Amino acid sequence: MLLFSLLSVAIAPGLSLLTYLYLRDKYDAEPVHIVVKMFVMGIIILIPIMVIQRGLQLWAADLPWIVSYIESAGVEEFFKWFILYHFIFNHVEFDEPYDGILYAAAISLGFATMENILYAIFTPVSFSMMFTRALLPVAGHAIFGILMGYYLGKAKFSKRRKYYLFISISVPVLLHGTYDLILLSLPATWIWYLLPFMIFIWIWGLRKMERAHARSPFKLYIKEDEVNY
């Protein structure tokens, strides 16, 4: 019964955030089955990521910045980006900037949810610890995905495609790596640095969501329909 409750707490944050982001799609809602597919892909990529990270643990130097920016952030964000680029970037349903945000967040939250489930099963945890994971790691993966998707959207609908593709992987890796570096380098006082960091990047992410909505081509169609009505 306790395990079931912990699993519920592990799963709920990811699904709640994904539902919120899906409902924020104001102008042209994406097919649910594609969003779910990306969420499931996020779960699946956890397996190769764990294998590669284990290999890096055996061969790479155990330095905080290497663990943070390469072993953790570099590997995880690259796999997410790789799947998005090859499965979504040229997809016909990726037809407005916000779509990149939604699909990137879906794969990130799938990964974070599965990571949370494994954490609940194999690590002695309490409800307070799982609540903390909902506020920090799961929310962190969500915002890394939001920013990745925002810049993928810029790449999709901009002439500076290569530049924004580079930014779409660089920004999540840098932010994710900084998040991990704070945890590794400041084990006693990390909370005082991580909370302001999370607040800052969430404000940044929410503003990017509004900018993506503002550039939607469907916004103009809706306004014209309202005028005609």
UniProtKB/TrEMBL annotation:
GO molecular function list: peptidase activity
GO BP of this protein: proteolysis
Matching InterPro entries: Peptidase_PrsW_arch/bac, PrsW
Subcellular locations according to the entry: Cell membrane
Bilayer topology annotation: Multi-pass membrane protein
Highest taxon, organism lineage: Bacteria
Keyword Transmembrane recorded: yes
E.C. code: 3.4.-.-
Keywords: Cell membrane, Hydrolase, Membrane, Protease, Transmembrane, Transmembrane helix
Enzyme type, top EC level: hydrolase
Pfam short name (any one): PrsW-protease
Entry's transmembrane regions: 6-23, 35-53, 65-88, 100-122, 134-152, 164-184, 190-206
Keyword Cell membrane tagged: yes
Family (UniProt): Belongs to the protease PrsW family.
Function: Involved in the degradation of specific anti-sigma factors.
Protein name per the record: Protease PrsW
Organism: Paenibacillus yanchengensis
Gene: prsW
